[in-house]
């Protein structure tokens, strides 16, 4: 069953944006919070309705609950349909986009009579907006940059959302007995952070092709059929939230399956390298198989392993197929044994309702213990500078530590580790004193402000603190929304190695930070990494698998990832830095 949470959350985000535009801030924040909660629920919202537990979800009041039930019954929310008529349609998704904002859009709309995105861009470029009081060239420049990011975000999907949509289509096609094998290919299979079109491959008998293509072209989500044939059909899928995406379905015979999967997984650069290798051996490789050039005899094609072996290579996992040295490593027998999801022993960046998380400490502990095979989790609620996130001051932090200790006594062992996501301040100092930090088991240090300046100096200084164990989301990017702040990652990696500080792979779909290129650089330099979900609710713990995919794209092995280790070994890592830089050793 297709999970409707993302589509419903999209509508609530849009309702929040419209209320922002109207100046009704309280309602805007309520819908924004509800959207965030729904987006990351561990199960489809319909499950909570069936179980009569909808209003038990924290942050979902009776008014919002009734709108959720209306959406589930009708596929629409009447209040949203009304609200849409009150502002220009093009502005709905632009309102809350960083760098634009509700107040700015409202003034531009009212004072210049602008009602479309194209008119907005024209007015920004021709100087009309810059002449408005309170605007100016710098603000106009930032708005144009934001609109460019918006266009990029609209053209591509985040990996997590693309997988949800692709898997939903695959699940429907699997219902046909004529489908022998089915797989999502392309950049989704390689686990790229963002996705353009969705590619799906099927193996079937020739006589079953038309039935499969007819079924695919008539799926309820299909808005338009672009191309329809017995080998390839391309459609435009429209989700409930109004987003449109192209999905291509290709059908192959069973004996072509491996060659087709290898070819359509890509990347293009990887395939060129592999085809050239085949040519050197007197072979031809395409989507139908591996053939001898002189006789056209087919020698492989049924499985990917068979295809790679036929040209003298071991199997290369999809995440590595980017022509970044994987073919050369394969030829030399030096492909790394990449980290697996099953290697992960704990999550080291978790927020509770003590700061801006949605769940209590005991809810988090019980949920994770029951669902994941973890040995520990680290609670890292925000420090005091993050007022908007209800950051903890020293007094509240001590109280949280006391509650964690009581919970661990009830659990019978120290499952919950005591940490903090402490702000790196503008001068590179930290939001808590060393005396406070020394009482923690693990410290994530992150930049949360001044994104327009080069923040290298802040991060380098923070890593010199003996109690900072990992730099959180090191570039601060939000994919398709905000570019990362300027930072010299070469210098950061060098300092991380020098000080014994880890760098975080933040698995949140919008962050995916570090990216795979810099993960590979950190791996090459021997810098330790953590894979963390930055969870703010129970559904976010599933993002760990995405963090692992990203780590694999960066050639990371189990040995490169700190949270594949037991807590005793994590503690050794923490104490090595404390000892090296003159800190107090942790004993718990």
Structure description:
It is a single chain. The chain is of the alpha/beta class and 588 residues long. It folds into 5 domains: 1-81, DNA polymerase beta, N-terminal domain-like (DNA polymerase, domain 1, Orthogonal Bundle), CATH 1.10.150; 87-155, DNA polymerase, domain 1 (Orthogonal Bundle), CATH 1.10.150; 156-252, Beta Polymerase, domain 2, CATH 3.30.460.10; 265-335, DNA polymerase, thumb domain (Beta Polymerase, domain 3); 341-580, TIM Barrel (Alpha-Beta Barrel), CATH 3.20.20.140. It has 23 helices and 17 strands. It has helices at 5-22, 25-39, 45-50, 62-74, 78-84, 102-112, 117-125, 137-155, 159-173, 186-189, 209-217, 257-265, 268-280, 304-310, 326-331, 361-371, 394-411, 434-437, 456-463, 489-499, 516-524, 544-553, 567-580; strands at residues 157-158, 181-184, 194-195, 198-203, 222-228, 232-238, 244-252, 283-286, 289-292, 298-300, 346-350, 376-379, 416-423, 442-446, 470-471, 502-506, 529-532. It has a 7-stranded parallel beta sheet with strand order 11-12-13-14-15-16-17. The protein has a 5-stranded mixed beta sheet with strand order 2-4-7-6-5, with helices on both faces. Strands 8-9-10 form a 3-stranded antiparallel beta sheet. Strand 6 and strand 7 form a beta hairpin. Helix 1 (5-22) runs antiparallel to helix 2 (25-39), helix 19 packs parallel to helix 20 and helix 21 packs across helix 22. The protein is globular. The two termini are 45 Å apart.
